[in-house]
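Project outcomes to date are best conveyed with an example. Our students and postdoctoral researchers have been running inverse folding experiments weekly, and each run begins with a structure described purely in tokens. The record below, which covers 334 residues, was selected by the lab manager from last quarter's runs and is presented without edits.
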């Protein structure tokens, strides 16, 4: 007789760099204003990692933060999944490096790229490792050094992004905690509206790509904006219907932090009270794969065992979706 194994988030951790890039500093770098950035995006400041450190360092610091909070022996960690769009290198995955830097001796690891939806998508993969019985301790990290791929002469994009890393530990559930279900979508036609065009196999590196700033984020903000609101709203509604739940059953919405107006619109479309929607974009900006775990890290003291959390994200690809989880007892409290 076999009973179903559920996957529970049992610990959270995070790391953001000390260096703050605020709106006043951006006013001196490009033609913008604190008023414009605040009213159009909700962002007041973001963290910048600086030269000499990479995504693997932030991921390792976040993992170490989780391990220190919980007292878990690093040797017990079996897998590290690292959601990122800013790997240390094009060739050689970042997860093994992050695991080594964090002192994990027995973990295997791999990178997962789904842009701003990376953590959300990978949560399903990490949960499956637990639910199948294949693994008992899986770390899922979302980490991005967006400052490495942002053009700080382009006011359309440079105000939006920041650096950071968040991590959760997944284990077999011993209470009601579970990753209940997911609705994920993608549409490859979205690449024309949001990407780093050069540096991959489609368009290599040349003097033209460097001079043309094609190694930095380029986006059609309005198209991304509309698709993000529609995508996160529709997959959240589809997921609730699939689970036979209504928004009244949801205790917290944890949305990808790309723009406060996107977050507010999704909340309104779902009919969720503002107090239930978690927002920390004013402090970190859009940290891409790190926004969701950084929210879980920042707000875990508000979540009670048994609470239902609706996680939703939208990103380059396009990629988007929603996941519903039941929160459980954490090993650590921040
Ligand atoms: N400061 C001042 N003005 C700025 C500016 C800045 N930092 N960035 C853009 N503008 C200007 C534009 O040049 C434009 O000027 P124009 O009308 O003379 O051409 C004007 O502001 C309005 O631009 P628009 O694109 O309509 O603004 P918006 O209200 O859509 O806001 C974004 C722009 C980028 C903030 C918004 O579209 C957005 O957040 N999009 C989604 C981005 C995103 O989430 N990306 C990551 C995917 S997860």
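After processing, the design step wrote out the following sequence:
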């Amino acid at each position: 007789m076999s009973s179903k194994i559920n996957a529970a988030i049992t610990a959270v951790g995070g790391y953001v760099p000390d260096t703050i890039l605020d709106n006043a500093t951006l006013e001196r770098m490009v033609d913008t204003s604190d008023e414009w950035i605040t009213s159009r995006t909700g962002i007041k400041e973001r963290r910048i990692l600086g030269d000499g450190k990479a995504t693997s360092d932030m991921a390792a610091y976040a993992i170490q933060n989780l391990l220190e909070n919980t007292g878990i022996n690093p040797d017990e960690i079996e897998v590290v999944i690292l959601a990122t769009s800013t790997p240390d290198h094009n060739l050689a995955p970042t997860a093994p490096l992050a695991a080594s830097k964090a002192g994990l001796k027995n973990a295997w690891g791999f990178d997962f790229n789904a842009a701003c939806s990376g953590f959300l998508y990978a949560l399903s993969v990490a949960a499956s490792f637990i639910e199948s019985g294949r693994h008992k301790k899986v770390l899922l990290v979302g980490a991005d050094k967006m400052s490495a791929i942002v053009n700080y002469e382009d006011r359309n994009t440079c105000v939006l992004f920041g650096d950071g890393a968040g991590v959760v530990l997944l284990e077999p559930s011993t209470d009601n905690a579970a990753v209940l279900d997911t609705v994920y979508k993608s549409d490859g036609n979205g690449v024309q509206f949001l990407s780093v065009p050069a540096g991959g196999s489609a368009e290599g590196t040349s003097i033209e790509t460097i001079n043309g700033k094609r190694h930095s984020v380029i986006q059609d903000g309005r198209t991304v904006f509309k698709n993000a609101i529609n995508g996160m709203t529709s997959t959240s509604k589809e997921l609730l219907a699939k689970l036979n739940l209504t928004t009244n059953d949801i205790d917290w919405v944890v949305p990808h932090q790309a723009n406060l107006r996107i977050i507010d619109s999704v909340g309104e479309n779902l009919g969720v009270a503002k107090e239930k929607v978690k927002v920390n974009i004013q402090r970190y900006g859009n940290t891409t794969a790190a926004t969701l775990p950084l929210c879980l890290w920042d707000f875990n003291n508000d979540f009670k065992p048994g609470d239902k959390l609706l996680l939703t994200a939208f990103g380059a690809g396009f990629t988007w979706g929603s996941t519903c989880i039941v929160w459980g007892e954490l090993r650590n409290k921040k």
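The pocket of coenzyme A is lined by residues 32, 36-37, 40-41, 116, 155-156, 159, 194, 219, 221-222, 224-225, 228, 258-259, 286, 314-315 (CB under 6 Å). The chain has a mean pLDDT of 97. The training component of this project remains on track.
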